Amino acid sequence: MVQHLKNKTLMEEELSSLIIPMEKVAHVQLKNPLEHALLVLIKSGYTVIPVLDPSLKLHGMISHSLILDSILGVEQFEMERLSNQIVSDVMNTDVPVIKREDTFSRALNLSINHPFLCVVNDKNEFLGILTRRSILALVSRFLHS
Ligand code: 2BA
């Protein structure tokens, strides 16, 4: 079983079908004001979401905590920063990325430290996400079959 998963690429594995496609992933644009990003985060219910540009290329991730941290003044929140700052000012650019040609083993390793991985193509265009939950569900199915 281990050898099987080690050599298979995402494309060959049924995990590929578990990728949540871009249209269903809550995301924001680089130039959106923080106010808009916070609204999308709150409305979607997710804590961290991808940041894209108008051509749908992946640039980073934004979270509640990054936004709150960036509007924190010395003694209080500086609420005007929500409209003065944009997503690219505060996003995290250290994004866990995976391609369909990558091995399942790489996805599993990356998912140890990340709740989800961004799936991109060779042009860095965002295709969707793969959650740690779906990766573990597949491992569990293999272990029990
Ligand atoms: P979190 O937002 O921290 O969510 C952690 C887990 O809480 C999710 O695990 C899911 O089980 C649950 N959850 C949170 N918000 C939810 C909602 N609006 N609807 C249903 N369940 C919700 P996963 O589903 O494994 O997702 C792991 C991480 O992947 C999420 O972490 C989020 O950062 C990202 N994510 C998942 N689906 C997403 C989507 N459609 N759009 C944007 N980001 C997504």
| Helical fraction | 25-40%
Instruction: Please state the oligomeric state of the protein chains shown.
Output: single chain
CATH architecture: Roll
CATH topology: CBS-domain
- Average pLDDT metric: 92
Helix and strand element order = HEEHEEHHHEHEEH
Q: What's the level 1 CATH class?
A: Alpha Beta
Task: Pick out its properties.
145 residues, alpha/beta, CBS-domain, 4-stranded mixed β-sheet, 3-stranded mixed β-sheet, 7 helices, binds ligand 2BA
Give a written overview of the molecule:
- It is a single chain.
- The protein is of the alpha/beta class and 145 residues long.
- The protein has one domain: CBS-domain (Roll).
- Helix content is 37%, strand content 19%.
- The chain is built from seven helices and seven strands; from the N terminus they run αββαββαααβαββα.
- The strands form two sheets. It has a four-stranded mixed sheet. Strands 2-3-4 form a three-stranded mixed sheet.
- α2 (34-44) links the parallel β2 (28-29) and β3 (48-52).
- The protein is elongated, with a radius of gyration of 17 Å.
- The N and C termini lie close together (10 Å).
- The model has no long low-confidence stretch (mean pLDDT 92).
- Residues 20, 24-26, 44-49, 115-116, 129, 131-133 line the site of ligand 2BA.
- The site of ligand 2BA has 16 residues, from β3, β7 and α7.
- This is CBS domain-containing protein.
- Residues 19-79 form the CBS domain.
- Keywords: CBS domain.
- It holds the Pfam family CBS.
Short description:
37% of the residues lie in helices and 19% in strands. The protein is α/β, with parallel strands linked by helices and 145 residues long.
